[in-house]
């Protein structure tokens, strides 16, 4: 796996490598949301991606760049859901065993999906320390190769391909792209794609108020933890990594926070107006844009809808 920040060639290579295994997801528009925001919005629908989330891109790129020798004892990771599915799905594609550590309060829909892809799940308490400890135990026991959910350059290069497609598919130049931020794999990949393929396009992050670490890190210039963690956006609970943070700090314009109410309202717009099943974490980027729409009137905006793995028995509306 690469130990340097992905460059233009790395991202292009990643795109070519994963293309046979992923969907080239559509870019959709909504006249209702355009009118509401007085802007031209282009939605990159990664909720329609394999496994229902953009994470398939990074998981595939990370696994497809491993050697047979590295794959022989299987792969392991820790994740509350979408990255867990991505690694189980990708490992199945190359015939490798996947050992997945999941917090014991992970959404049932995501647990079932990991099992469906053949992943062997070990549950742990939902703290970063417990996740890390449990993965280390598995590595000790099995010799599996560890693929970090976001703090891994091969994963970042894979995630960068979503914004690369968005930029290429929009005939008109985008003024900005909004992406959500948890650990920063997608956001750093998006920032790199904008930097290489559309240098005038600014990148903004949307972050839940109930997991607001990236905004603090961005302001203080060091990796911070959120003062409290309580949000409906269960995919964005983790803090930035030492690989994602420097890329984000260098290449994005700002981090904008949103409340759970604003996330739910945006999710509702996507379901009702665009007929798109988007999970709370996936609606954060739209929520951040709507909240700040007065600053961006008349602009062309790309918004990445990151996933659609929502528990239908627990809808917030």
TrEMBL record:
Similarity remark: Belongs to the serine/threonine dehydratase family.
One MF term in the entry's GO annotations: magnesium ion binding
UniProt keyword annotation of Repeat present: no
Tryptophan synthase beta chain-like PALP domain sequence ranges: 19-307
SUPFAM superfamilies to which the protein is assigned, alphabetical: Tryptophan synthase beta subunit-like PLP-dependent enzymes
Protein name (record): Threonine dehydratase
Keywords linked to the UniProt accession: Lyase, Pyridoxal phosphate
Family matches, as Pfam families: PALP
Needed co-factor(s): pyridoxal 5'-phosphate
Lyase in keyword set: yes
GO biological process, any: D-serine biosynthetic process
